[in-house]
Design goal:
Elements (H helix, E strand, L loop, with lengths): L4 H19 L3 E5 L6 E5 L2 H51 L5 H30 L5 E6 L2 E7 L5 H15 L6 E6 L4
Parallel strand pairs: 4-5
Antiparallel strand pairs: 1-2, 3-4
Helix pairs in contact: 1-2, 2-3, 3-4
Length: 186
């Protein structure tokens, strides 16, 4: 079980504030960080409560933003890891003199294809971002693609712009570009 010390501290402070409000206590005794002893701190419980609650809400917003950013960043990292593994395997085939010539040629061609796909995805992602989308991921599939965008919702016009932009880079029919909206809060 993982214990979040920050939440434990906040819960402890809230408990002290509640108890101080119930019993009319206006002084809190706090252990000093450098362990030199006990330090007396006079605090108005209403001020402390609002500061702690505001701090907690700001932390929740920061965590939500970090999760949102992590989704796109983690996906990109995982995609790069997978491609690195693929490229390494293909290099092994190409450099293996015991492998058939056709297999080495096919591996070489696949490496070129992977490189082209990477370029197309990067171009498409940048085009989508230029349309006012904060972040996105483009996944190429044979003859089409999927775009995951960070936005609360898309208008039909925005959707059409994204499809045209991605389709032009990928060289795919407008109807073969699928869009997934990842809510900005999730």
């Amino acid at each position: 079980m993982i214990i979040d010390l920050k939440r434990v501290k906040i819960a402890g402070i809230l408990l002290i504030i509640i108890l101080s409000g119930i019993f009319g206590i206006s002084r809190l005794y706090v252990l000093n960080h450098n362990n030199k002893g006990v330090q007396e701190v006079v605090v108005k419980s209403a001020d402390l409560t609002s500061d702690v609650l505001n701090s907690d809400m700001a932390d929740e917003e920061a965590i939500s933003q970090e999760k949102k950013n992590n989704f796109f960043a983690e996906y990109r990292l995982e995609r790069e890891r997978m491609r690195s593994r693929q490229m390494e395997m293909l290099k092994d085939i190409i450099n293996n003199e015991k492998a058939e010539k056709k297999a080495r040629e096919a591996a070489s061609l696949r490496m070129v294809e992977i490189t082209r796909e990477m370029e197309k995805e990067l171009k498409a992602e940048n085009l989508v971002k230029s349309k006012g989308i904060e972040d996105c991921i483009v996944l190429l599939q044979s003859g089409g693609g999927t775009v995951v965008v960070e936005k609360d919702n898309l208008s039909k016009e925005e959707e059409a712009e994204i499809r045209r932009a991605v389709g032009s880079v990928v060289g795919s029919d407008y109807a073969r570009i699928f869009i997934i909206v990842k809510n900005g809060d999730a």
